[in-house]
Design brief:
single chain; three-stranded antiparallel sheet; globular; binds zinc ion
Length: 57
Amino acid sequence: MKCPTCEKTIEFDWLETECIEPNEEFNCSHCAEVLRYEIDEGTYLGAQHFTVEVVDE
Ligand SMILES: [Zn+2]
């Protein structure tokens, strides 16, 4: 998935390493924007789909 602000890739492995849970706020490792991600399970072909969004203050 990509950061909506800087468009750089955020690796899911990095989120796991940092122990960042879905819906928990975190800072983009590239631009420090405050972000949040969600996992959509049960999308077609059983693939997991991640969405990331900017957290509005
Ligand atoms: Zn960013």
